[in-house]
């Protein structure tokens, strides 16, 4: 398989690329990434010289450049990770989210249609469903889309474009909606890596509101296996939920990190809640289990402990991200890799 991965220098995308190159020796991966602040080529250092891996710098919203890449790529499948993804940033400025998450997805869909891609897999989020009450059943794939933040609204719009391209043009699209990922190489603005990094630096741990917002957590490796299963066995036009069956409050997650690192809960600082903060997410993953023969393997306890240990053992990586030094690695890579321009 010749696979185009967009946004592959980000957290989930980089983990997926490493997973594919390890598990599928007959797959070739082209990684198209704009390298915004969250794109880090250091995440892929171990595979950068792999003959089955190609990096191309470019913007998925650049129509001419994307068409040129598809014309020469001969891609069998596309996995679209490329997205602005941080809710707090979307509240401050929704514009980049519309440009990348909506317009960029449409550009990719059109190129995939024009060049006969066999599978287009859209990586989405549980946030498109909105918020659950404490006693509501988990989201199924039939749950109405009711996003509550500019970020989740942009992802919902992208999902609907995928549906439209399948229904109108017959493009074989599969949509994957996943719960909160955690694991190695996550940019330290997200909850778990931020808390770990702050603990290691003896800094306060900021927790929104009362800390009782609930998320369903999945280890990124389990998500990567799910994406690969959806690529190989997913029904065109279908949506698949992925989750870890691990609902935890944010406060529980922070306290567990403190226990693992043997640090006091006095480091916790409750801060003003963010606008439109969804109270609870939970995923019904029965369809993925039934149709894709997939299920999560990591328990949250084992996965979180392994994640904490990874950040402890890779403190230099964390520091290079937090102080911006990782961008120097970009500069060298720009000189050694093809740059895509329209």
UniProtKB/TrEMBL annotation:
Protein name per the record: dTDP-glucose 4,6-dehydratase
Domain NAD(P)-binding: 4-306
Keyword Ubl conjugation in annotation: no
GO biological process, one term: nucleotide-sugar metabolic process
Catalytic reaction equation(s): dTDP-alpha-D-glucose = dTDP-4-dehydro-6-deoxy-alpha-D-glucose + H2O
NCBIfam families attached to this UniProt entry: dTDP_gluc_dehyt
UniProt entry keywords in alphabetical sequence: Lyase, NAD
Family, as annotated: Belongs to the NAD(P)-dependent epimerase/dehydratase family. dTDP-glucose dehydratase subfamily.
InterPro entries per the UniProt record, alphabetical: dTDP_Gluc_deHydtase, NAD(P)-bd_dom, NAD(P)-bd_dom_sf, Sc_DH/Rdtase_CS
């Amino acid at each position: 398989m010749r696979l185009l991965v967009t946004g592959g220098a980000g957290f989930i995308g980089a983990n997926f690329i490493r997973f594919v190159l390890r598990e599928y020796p007959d797959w070739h991966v082209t990684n198209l990434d704009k390298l915004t602040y969250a794109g880090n080529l250091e995440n892929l250092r171990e595979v950068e010289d792999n003959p089955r891996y190609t990096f191309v710098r470019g913007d998925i919203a650049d129509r001419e450049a994307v068409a040129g890449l598809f014309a020469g790529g001969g891609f069998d499948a596309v996995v679209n990770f490329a997205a602005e993804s941080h809710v707090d940033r979307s509240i401050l400025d929704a514009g980049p989210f519309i440009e990348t998450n909506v317009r960029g997805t449409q550009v990719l869909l059109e190129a995939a249609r024009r060049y006969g891609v066999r599978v287009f897999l859209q990586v989405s989020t549980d946030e498109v469903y909105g918020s659950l009450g404490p006693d509501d059943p988990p989201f199924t794939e039939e749950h109405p889309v009711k996003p509550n933040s500019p970020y989740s609204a942009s992802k919902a719009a992208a999902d609907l474009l995928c549906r439209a391209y399948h229904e109108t043009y017959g493009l074989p699209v599969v949509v994957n909606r996943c719960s909160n990922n955690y694991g190695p190489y996550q940019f330290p603005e997200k909850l778990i890596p931020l808390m770990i990094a702050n603990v290691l630096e003896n800094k306060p741990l900021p927790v929104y509101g009362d800390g009782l917002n609930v998320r369903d957590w999945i280890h990124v490796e389990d998500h990567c296996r799910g994406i690969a299963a959806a690529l190989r066995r997913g029904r065109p036009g279908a949506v698949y939920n992925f989750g870890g069956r691990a609902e935890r409050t944010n406060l529980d997650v922070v306290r567990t990190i403190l226990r693992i690192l043997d640090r006091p809960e006095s480091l916790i600082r409750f801060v003003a809640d963010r606008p439109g903060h969804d109270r609870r997410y939970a995923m019904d993953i029965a369809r993925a289990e039934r149709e894709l023969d997939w299920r999560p393997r990591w328990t949250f306890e084992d996965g979180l402990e392994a994640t904490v240990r990874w950040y402890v053992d890779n403190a230099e990586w964390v520091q290079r991200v937090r102080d911006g030094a990782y961008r120097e690695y970009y500069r060298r890579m720009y000189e050694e890799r093809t740059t895509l321009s329209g």
